[in-house]
Sequence to fold (583 residues):
Amino acid sequence: MRNAFADEMTKIAKVDPRLVVLSGDIGNKLFDKLKAVDEKRFYNCGIAEANMMGVAAGMALSGLRPFVYTITPFTTTRCFEQIRVDVCYHHAPVVIVGTGSGLSYSELGPTHHSLEDMAIMRTLPGMRVLAPCDATELRHALHEVLKDDSPTYIRIGKKGEADIHASPPDLKLGKVLVIRPGTDVALLCAGNMMADTIKAADLLAGNGISAEVVSFHTVKPLDEDYLKQAATRFKLLVTIEEHSRIGGLGSAVAEWRMAQLRNVAQLSFGTDDVFMHEVGSQAYARKKYGLTADNITTTTLAALRA
Amino acid sequence: MMTTHDISGLAKTAATLRARIIETSALTGTPHLGSCLSCIDILTALYFHVLSIDPTNPKAANRDRCILSKGHGAMGLFHVLAERGFYPLSDLESYGQDGGIFAEHPPTPEHLPGIEAATGSLGHGLPLGLGMAMAARIQGYDYKVYAVLGDGECNEGSVWEAAMLASAQRVSSLCVIVDFNKWQATGRSQEVMALDPLVDKWKAFGWNALEVNGHDFDELLGAINQFPHSNGKPTAIIAHTVKGKGASFMEDDNNWHYRIPTPEEVLMAKKELGVLS
Fold:
């Protein structure tokens, strides 16, 4: 996804003079083509994320459209104060991009995990929260966010994520994309768990269960229109995300159900409320937290049969 | 659009503003009076002699930007902007009232003309101002950006992050003025965080750094006139000030960080300021 991000920034910079990319001392070569478009459109702001976020807000208040890019914890929790005050209080159109989100950097340990980023970003008034499931959704989202002046947070993976969309999707912010229609249960996925979500749908199909697979690329604002009709079509909604079960898509859907007094049931797949103290790959960490197609399948089957 | 206040005019304006600030503090129970009085000469010099701004067109693309990064000095800034013509002085009659806009910290630019950034949480104004100055370079404007910081505010790491990036990017159109009143909320700024030697710190971070008496308009304007410097460095003016300046019984007494003056004290201050009608 990060290569798609750099590529799309380069393309947009050629046609939109407002675009500027600020990086927190990563991806220097990644943005060589962008720098070739115009050296004034890329700034390495060093390992100083609080300042970088304030600089981005200052640029946005001056008519530019800055994209702030670094590893997710450092562009979210590290500088949350600046995101809250400089970006969101001013409703400055800054696009914050967290790369290597969730457990993408599992081996680097909890300092580099981001399992609470969507939770804290969702709390900020006016902030959009996006979790595209693949590079294609990301590319479309990067164009969509420039169509208005709202601040946006986008969590992306690193590289090598599976391509989900065979053809360009008609992506609209705040509107889900139904990847595969179904009739028995809805699997709602935010972000990089989509390949396993589709695999779970395949496994459910083998058990005679028709699962609808949905990309909730926009976690805020939530697609309430979809949820309203899903709540009438399905008895069970299943949320899936590489994020804490506290505060992400699962929480957003639960909050919606509570506000609507809906009695549709929900299963929430995400990480446990713990730091991971042992070393482990992304696959190891996902298994530890039950974020596998097998576990999603067996747990969903058990819930449907209960 | 500049105004043509001469230096004697600036002193008179500052005295009037001091009296109004003290009255507002007393009437509304707004604290941080000492902080407002220490920076009012700096703000007066900027808004009435230096800044290229037009109150009738507060969003002009090439206007100079000034950010009061020490947002707790808002009561001073609100009076400066009223006197400068951004809104009528009578608007301040709603100060501190429910549903109003004037309180202890500046609101966002969308809510009050003349404001460039909502501050109050310290350490934000300089990064924001740096972003504005870099934007000017990207967009081909030649406006200048001023950020007024407190000395206590220089505790914040984000100030020094911004100082380093401004130096690396050679953002010569950025000017910091530190209202160096030697106090922060709970003690001497030198004792809380070993701030001295402050001018050397800014020099070490790659800035042109000057020291002036922050209550002397000749010195203040003389330093500001050296900005922007042709050497490409951003400029920091360390303005030595006195907290509570203008009312002898408040000067250098940190109780006036939070104390509210009595009606008798308002009269005493106005008498000293020579603005008692």
In short: The two ends of chain B are 32 Å apart (CA to CA). Chain B has a mean pLDDT of 96. Chain B has one domain: 7-273. The first strand of chain B starts at residue 65 and ends at 68.
